[in-house]
């Protein structure tokens, strides 16, 4: 019989050494990675993920009756957070400190961008008769539970902020993210890139909501509020002016817009502009001529606010 013909799919023998070497290198790299990778931080043999699961389970035991339901209550019940924070699971999370915060922040960011959370957001806007026929979402509740867990960490919870801030881009969980970030003590400058992005895209409502609710007092916030002042809605512009007043010297980038606002048709806008310029202080020197004119405004309220602003701004020159 003749020699059987080799299959065209059979790998030539000369390639076998290369395959063996490649597989050996890959196996060695995998072993090296596993050997060098730091073990996940744990307390009493449990990781942050395990303590968080126990924390969620424990939360079901601490709902108390309330006479007047609120947005934070579950029907006629409300969470007793002080009792929950005394649970062993809460102590375990606190013991892990910033490691627990990093885990919770990462989990928050992942949940906020999932399809399941979008479903939860849609579910909340459906009429009751449709909700009863659809499965109850779970993603939204987990964000609330993460928020509770962060509350148990104290100051260490601030480490979660960088991982949660990107979730503000998701319209469906914007409000939940703002509420979660409220309790964290983190450097508000971390919000500057997102504020600038929104401002450039004309999303001024987001800018004002974050600046107001998270008490952002940065010069970038001042620049973004200045752009928002160029809008047409007087009510919205008054809110912007109130926030600029709270910014103090950080509102310096908005001085040109504030000078223009001193001549606005709306009395409240003119008054708000004068107050914001007073808050900026001596660095708003270029506003002096406009403020001097505003002391003759038809509104006594604007006159007095402009006079106060002048005294504050010119104080540096008289010292």
How much of the sequence lies in strands comes to under 5%
Helix-strand pattern, N to C?
HEEHEEEHHHHHHHHHHHHHHHH
Rounded average pLDDT: 86
Tell how many strands the DSSP assignment holds: 5
Q: In which range does the helix fraction lie?
A: 55-70%
Distance between the termini: 114 Å
Q: How many structurally independent domains?
A: 2
Query: How much is the radius of gyration in Å?
Result: 29 Å
Structural class: mainly alpha
Q: Helical element count?
A: 18
Can you tell me the overall shape?
Answer: elongated
Low-confidence sequence ranges: none
Main pleated-sheet profile: 3 strands, antiparallel
* Strand adjacency order, main sheet: 3-5-4
Show the helix and strand layout:
Blueprint: H1 16-36, E1 42-43, E2 46-47, H2 48-59, E3 63-65, E4 73-74, E5 77-79, H3 81-84, H4 88-96, H5 98-112, H6 115-124, H7 128-131, H8 139-153, H9 161-164, H10 174-182, H11 192-200, H12 204-213, H13 219-228, H14 234-247, H15 255-261, H16 267-280, H17 288-294, H18 300-318
Antiparallel strand pairs: 1-2, 3-5, 4-5
Helix pairs in contact: 2-4, 4-5, 5-8, 8-10, 11-12, 11-13, 12-13, 13-14, 14-16, 15-16, 16-18, 17-18
Report on the structure:
- It is a single chain.
- The protein is mostly helical and 319 residues long.
- It has 18 helices and five strands.
- A hairpin with a 2-residue loop joins strand 4 (73-74) and strand 5.
- Helix 11 runs parallel beside helix 13 (219-228) and helix 17 (288-294) runs antiparallel to helix 18 (300-318).
- The longest helix has 21 residues, at 16-36.
- The N and C termini lie far apart (114 Å).
